[in-house]
Amino acid sequence: RKKMILDLDTGIDDALAIAYAVADPEVDLIGIIGSYGNVYVEDGVQNSLKILELLQATDVPVYQGLAHSSESDHFDRMPISAEIHGQNGIGEIDLPAPKRQPEKGDALDFFINAVEKYQQDLILVPTGPLTNLDAAIKRSPKLVDQIGNITLMGGAVTVPGNVTNVAEANINQDATAADHVFRQAPLTQVGLDVTLRTLLTRKETQQWRDLKTKAGAAFADMVDYYIKAYEVTSPDLHGCALHDPFAVGVAIDPSFVDTIALNMYVTTDKKYYGRTTGDPARLSKPNPNVKVAVNADVDRYLASFMEHLTGLFAK
Ligand code: BDR
Ligand code: CA
């Protein structure tokens, strides 16, 4: 089984990413690292613990990662995304306080040690800002050659951003960290180019509600909240985007997307802050390090997504 670590800022689609990873029998989810973004890091960690408990996956350790952007001289903590994910990050649904605490150990050391141990068998899926990954690479630069796969949700290449004209939310939180990661690590970029095509509607959440289980009802309520937010902010889409669980899907089965290989960088200048771009200066260099997902097998992914999650919520 593939070993996987998720690095996420547990809002609603991050919760779906956790569920997808827990549901896939090919995946051994060996840990979760908490990030900030949709919510503050402490709340994201609590949400991860609550979701794991709801899914009866209480053997997955949760570590608290870094609390704010590596550009902390510019800003300390950015506002959370309450209008999309709710004040509590999980669509205002009420889950019991988790019985477990987050792990006491250092999140970056946990990740670095896992890379040492599992090497090519380890997949990292960041679905929040890249602050933790950047800091881990600084602490252990060789990890970029050791790790088997990094598949992240972030950025956009062929479509505009979702928080500014040029920036996607995760990259916009810490473009400096993202730039370091994009320049150094081999990775697959699952950006808005493809995640805005994988949409969920109330038809699917009704299927979960019909299961009449705790998990089915909780996820249906949570995702209905997310769908409502999308109806306000992106009425043309007719559904909510499965950003983060699509990154997990692609990490497990890269054939869900077509990619183009580029050397990427991230703009940190104010005017185009957070834009992810193919570097023209390195176009002729061999072995570009980033695979940019540009086309998605949406129907096949959605079928897999529903099979995995409905099966899990039925338990
Ligand atoms: C990304 O930003 C967050 O709000 C979502 O969880 C996702 O990771 C989409 O731009
Ligand atoms: Ca996220």
From TrEMBL:
<dbReference type="InterPro" id="IPR001910">
    <property type="entry name" value="Inosine/uridine_hydrolase_dom"/>
</dbReference>
<dbReference type="InterPro" id="IPR036452">
    <property type="entry name" value="Ribo_hydro-like"/>
</dbReference>
<dbReference type="GO" id="GO:0005829">
    <property type="term" value="C:cytosol"/>
</dbReference>
<keyword id="KW-0326">Glycosidase</keyword>
<protein>
    <submittedName>
        <fullName>Purine nucleosidase</fullName>
    </submittedName>
</protein>
<feature type="domain" description="Inosine/uridine-preferring nucleoside hydrolase">
    <location>
        <begin position="4"/>
        <end position="302"/>
    </location>
</feature>
<dbReference type="GO" id="GO:0008477">
    <property type="term" value="F:purine nucleosidase activity"/>
</dbReference>
<dbReference type="InterPro" id="IPR023186">
    <property type="entry name" value="IUNH"/>
</dbReference>
<keyword id="KW-0378">Hydrolase</keyword>
<dbReference type="GO" id="GO:0006152">
    <property type="term" value="P:purine nucleoside catabolic process"/>
</dbReference>
<dbReference type="Pfam" id="PF01156">
    <property type="entry name" value="IU_nuc_hydro"/>
</dbReference>
